[in-house]
Design a protein that fits this description.
- The protein is mainly beta.
- Helices cover 11% and strands 41% of the residues.
- It has a single domain, classed as TolB, C-terminal domain (Neuraminidase), CATH 2.120.10.
- The strands form seven sheets. It has a four-stranded antiparallel sheet with strand order 1-26-25-24, with no helix packed on it. The chain has a four-stranded antiparallel sheet with strand order 2-3-4-5, with no helix packed on it. A four-stranded antiparallel sheet has the order 6-7-8-9, with no helix packed on it.
Length: 358
């Protein structure tokens, strides 16, 4: 009898928490397109990423979100503890360039040799690699401070940094809340190195994430993680200033995106689409219940390594996956250097590397 009583009481407490506990998220209703199949078609499951080599697995590389190479073939990445580190070409040793005191996420080289950093806590930064001096470039735009600077790309002439602010309402570490809420409060911004001004190019984005300039810098892409799509803003030509959709209805949550300076964008897929997130999309009350549940249970993230290659028209030209045990995931960035992909992750303890095949 006592067991029944305590079981019933526990159930009532849990139910009361899930239904009535205060939560800061205020979800809005929306209708996602049906998720593409992973069992057939252009996103069909495969094991092409099963051969990922792990660089620096003995170097305590916790959370190498984004990956860059320098002229000496050394690897640059930012870590969970705020450090930006440089790893030798053999992947056997590292040196700390600086600790931003935040969370370095997006990385890009400026033509003058500085490392430009989208830091999820500190804003848009510039690092003089030779003396480890960090300069804060900007922390807000249009009177609104950045909530979560995420990724960055630099124009070839070095005048502009195009970067994303994932959410003006939520901050680093609250990505789940931002995606769950779906209020479209992300921004695509540009920083002018000549004038020091920061301008908003696009707002209303659903968790603005990866940023990449396209061929000839005719347009810039921004991944909208919460809407499973990539938006495009035209910068030149008759369409200049116009926004359109570069690729819609992706099979997962898009993260960072990079261009190989030839013919292909590489897109990291953080995790495949979540059934519950989609089925509750038009049920704000249930999404609040879901958000409360995620405070006490692990996030429902499928651990699948997934990278997509897109041509300059948004068509899928590469689909690389691995859902086997111990796969390298979640993948948050991918960058092509020659015939090799270098892969970053928000939680892995190494950098991934895999050779491309024709």
């Amino acid at each position: 009898m006592k067991k029944r009583y305590w079981a019933g009481l526990t159930l009532a407490v849990v139910a009361g928490y899930l239904l009535f506990a205060p939560t800061p998220i205020e979800p809005v209703s929306w209708t996602p397109p049906p998720a593409p199949s992973l069992s057939e078609g252009e996103f069909k499951e495969n094991n092409l990423l099963a051969g990922i080599e792990r660089i620096g697995s003995k170097l305590e590389l916790y959370g190498p979100e984004a990956v860059l190479k320098d002229a000496q073939n050394r690897t640059i990445t930012g870590l969970q503890d705020g450090r930006i580190v440089r790893i030798n070409a053999e992947g056997t040793s590292l040196e700390t360039l600086v600790n931003t005191g935040g969370r370095p996420l997006g990385l890009a080289w400026h033509p003058d040799g500085r490392l430009i950093i989208a830091d999820g806590v500190k804003g848009l930064l510039a690092l003089n690699v030779s003396d480890s001096e960090v300069q804060v470039l900007t922390t807000g735009a249009d009177g609104i401070p950045f909530g979560f600077a995420d990724d960055v790309d630099i124009s070839a002439d070095g005048q502009y940094a195009y970067f994303s602010d994932a959410s003006i309402r939520w901050h680093y570490g609250q990505d789940g809340e931002a995606v769950m809420e779906h209020r479209g409060d992300g921004r695509l911004l540009v920083y002018d190195f000549h004038s020091g001004e920061t301008k908003t190019l696009l707002n209303g984005l659903e968790f603005a994430n990866g940023v990449a300039l396209g061929p000839n810098e005719d347009y810039v892409l921004v991944a909208e993680t919460g809407a499973y799509r990539i938006s495009r803003l035209w910068l030149k030509g008759p369409k200049a200033g116009r926004q359109d959709i570069f690729r819609d209805n992706l099979p997962g949550l898009p993260d960072n995106i990079t261009f190989n300076d030839q013919d292909r964008f590489w897109l990291a897929i953080y995790t495949p689409r979540n059934y519950f997130l989609d089925v509750f999309a038009d049920k704000p009350f249930m999404r609040k219940v879901f958000a409360r549940a995620l405070r006490i249970i692990p996030k429902l993230i499928e651990h699948r390594a997934m990278i997509l290659g897109l041509d300059t028209e948004g068509g899928i030209v590469a689909n690389l996956q691995d859902s086997g045990p111990g796969n390298y995931s979640p993948i948050t960035s991918v960058r092509q250097v020659g015939d090799t992909l270098y892969i970053g992750s928000f939680t892995e303890r190494s950098i991934g590397k895999i050779k491309l095949t024709p």
